[in-house]
Amino acid sequence: MHQISSLMGKQGGGGVNAAVTVPDASSSTAAAAAVVKHKIVLLGDQSVGKTSLVTRFMYDTFDQQYQATIGIDFFSKTIPVDNRTVRLHVWDTAGQERFRSLIPSYIRNSSGTIVVYDITSRASFLGTFKWIDEVRAERGDSVVIFLVGNKLDAQEKRVVSTEEAQKKAEEYNLVFMEVSAKQGKNVKALFRKMAEALPLPDDNASGIGKKGNGVGDSSSQPVVLGKQRDPFLLTPSRLPQSDRSGLQTNNNNNRGNDDTNGFANYTQGRCC
């Protein structure tokens, strides 16, 4: 085994140093053969808790302060499942209406989709119909879809019953779960069930370079090392200056002037 240190990049004048363990060639070849890579996309209306679910899954933390996702964030984590290892490339998408035109490019080549609603918001539940229809229109029946009700910690404010959501899931042939990102309830189980439900590639168990699973060449993608979040996750404010295509962003929440077409071109060309 070899260990090297790499400088991932700078953000706000500082750098992130990460020690990366690199196995010998013989062991890395065997490990790669056992890894199946899949692209997973989270969809849902704004404020339903998509980012909180991903943060709980990745780092087992919960941020009380809400900040809307702009564009997408990208995460990667490996889960052992039965006799294989599944690497989930998780795309956390924005729920704002102005980003809806980008959804087809987000879900293209995805293996699974998690459609999230807030059990205390009927509007967000009704909104899942549109998200599911968009996934079906782009991917047909070739993608695994989970319908997930978030905020189980707010049972006293519940307006969408478990029975109603379960009935909808059965009607649309979806996997249904209820979770709490705040408490961590069922979050790990959610992503494990997704990993278990995803198919093996037909002719290449590693999934490396396969367009069908939306992963492609991992060397061109942002990554997460351990629990240190990559400072260059794919959101407009974090794009290299030369790639922003006129995107207007700042550190506040007043980021309404994003050039979404330019951002779509960036994500489509650089990731998956």
Provide an overview of this structure.
With 272 residues, the chain is α/β, with parallel strands linked by helices. The chain has a single domain (33-227), classed as 3-Layer(aba) Sandwich (Rossmann fold), CATH 3.40.50. Helix content is 28%, strand content 24%. The protein contains 7 helices and 8 strands. The protein has helices at residues 25-33, 50-59, 103-107, 122-139, 162-172, 187-197, 260-270, and strands at residues 2-11, 14-22, 35-43, 72-81, 84-93, 112-118, 144-150, 175-178. It has a 6-stranded mixed β-sheet with strand order 4-5-3-6-7-8, with helices on both faces. The two termini are 29 Å apart. The model is unreliable at 1-32 and 203-272 (pLDDT under 50). Residues 249-262 have a biased composition (Low complexity). This is Putative small GTP-binding protein RAB6.
Report the CATH superfamily: P-loop containing nucleotide triphosphate hydrolases
Tell me the major beta sheet: 6 strands, mixed
Low-confidence runs of at least 5 consecutive residues: 1-32, 203-272
CATH architecture: 3-Layer(aba) Sandwich
Please report which band the strand proportion falls in: under 5%, 5-15%, 15-25%, 25-35%, 35-45% or over 45%.
15-25%
CATH class: Alpha Beta
CATH third-level topology:
Rossmann fold
Q: Kindly state the mean pLDDT as a whole number?
A: 70
Q: How many individual domains? A: 1
User: What is the count of β-strands?
Assistant: 8
Question: End-to-end span in angstroms?
Answer: 29 Å
- The percent range for helix content is 25-40%
GO molecular function, one term: GTPase activity
InterPro entries: P-loop_NTPase, Rab, Small_GTP-bd, Small_GTPase
Protein name: Putative small GTP-binding protein RAB6
Pfam families: Ras
